[in-house]
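Hi support team,

I'm opening this ticket because the web form for multi-chain structure prediction keeps timing out on my end. I have pasted the exact lines I submitted so you can reproduce it. The total is 605 residues across two entries, so I didn't expect it to be a heavy job. Is there a limit I'm missing, or should I split the entries? Thanks in advance, R.K.
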Amino acid sequence: MSATIARRRATRQAGVYVAAAALAVFVLGPIFWLVTTSLKPRSEVFASPPKFLPTELTFANYADVLTPDTLQFFANSVIVCLGTTVMCLAFSLLACFTLTRTGTRGRKPILVGVLVSQLLPQAVLLVPLYRAADTLGLLNSRFGLMVAFMTFTLPVAIWLLRGFLMAIPLELEEAARLDGLSEFGAYWRVIVPLAKPGVAAVGIYVFFMAWQDFMYSLVFLTDASKRTLPLGVLALIGSHTIEWGQLMAVSALLLVPILLVFTFAQRYFIAGLTAGAVKG
Amino acid sequence: MPPTVRNADVSISVAERLAPGEAPDQAVAREKRRHHRQTALRVLCIVPPIALLGALVVYPLANAVYLSFTKSSFINPDPDWAGLANYQAILTSDTFLTVLKNSLIWTVAVVAAQFVLGLASAILLSQKFKGRLVLRSMVILPWIMPGVIAGVLWKLLYDPYLGPVNAVAGGLGLVDGNPAWLGQASTALAAVIIAAIWKGFPLSTIMYMASYQGVPNELREAARSDGANAWQVFLHVTLPAMAPTIRTTVLLTTVWTFNYFDLVYVMTAGGPGTSTEIFPTYIYREAFQNVRYGVAGAYGVISVVLLSIFTVVYLRQLNKSGGLD
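Hello R.K., no limit was hit. The queue was backed up. Here is the completed structure from your submission:
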């Protein structure tokens, strides 16, 4: 009897390992390919049939792509994404002061509006925004791109931040008020500092969303010197041959900041992610 | 979330405490002034963010609707009023049917697969096995990767001669020669869909993992002691308990997938022909390659109408669960 149970348990455990291996291959296989291709010498990148394990590793592709241009693109990306994060946090902290007061009339329609704008197809907004930016001279400008990024980051940031702020117990605000702080003072000096981890999570999530962008950069930046890194990646796809080794090396560079953020702030990151999607 | 009330109620208790030598009616007047100041400050704080959202979202949306009634071209990019001409042309064109069909296939296939794969992997990663913590933190990688990288990476994976897909499939005897998965209309959409599933399913995994682990074990134990087998426990206990998370996640992934531009644009740019053209990529093509803002606007309006069904469902659900209070 116990032998059957033990055998059944062993079969189940084996099944778990097989499934885990399959999942690992599916998820990590492509990433393995990205990393190894970036480290292969050109002759092996263009070997057909492809070599699954490189026979020698080289950083030649990285050396090839680490040009002043690429560094400029990288700097542009970092500046635009950090700028977006700062502006987005400032505006959403302001908005959330009002949106966390349940007594305010007209709060619900605003919240609905914020949510709906988060679900709109960005492609629809693209043409009018492009034309408006053209008129205002904001094309090919890092500031213009930051403002454009707020289209999809600000609604999410307001929504997430409000969730984190509402989770701070009301008694703390009441106590601050009885100590003589104004309503805004209580918000700014007591509630927001207490919600610091939440504010950090929102900031990280906004940076992440901005770093993911491709469509707005594609439309707003046509001047080569203003390009961000995603466009640098695209520019490497020539019309005839694609230098896959270099392309994968640039891709790896584009992954680094996101991996750093993810490694050092995983807790905040997951908090922002789950709060953003499900608690809604 | 517990219902919390943050409003002027607090100030009433302040009003009850008179300042030294102050008459009660003076205190009430003082409180009234304070109350007005407070309201003004609330309005002042909400105006800049809402004005910005108005300029970035409401104005472009209204402008897109206006543009959909105009005509422009590469030679004459300024829009001229054209009435319903764009809609008439679109609704009778084959391209529209292709875009609509592709968008539906793309959305349904990607969302369904992400649901199944997300749920299965969430349950798997909640089991005890060696290396699960490593796998748990690695599984998110495709999702945090910018879409443009995922696009070029999968382009390489599918490369007929240099990519591992044909090498593996050929080695297993599944394919003859070196098919160009992205280069032929019959397989391009399926190939892009697989890449999108890979890119997006980790989000569902994270959501479902949190939800799965939140189902109280006592519930499962109780069902088991009533004689339910593992499958019945899953179907009648675990799944219903996870239902709210599943509903929200499926709704959101539907909207995001329908709107997703990067992957298709980088991998196929909608081609070959129009075989992988979905609403966002086709709007981009009409607006920025053909400079037909009106047609792009009309496609945009149609896609907003299609999406609004899901948006309304999502809002209703959120309202019911008290998320808007």
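A quick check on our side: Residues 65 and 297 of chain B are 6 Å apart (CA to CA). Let us know if the file doesn't open in your viewer.
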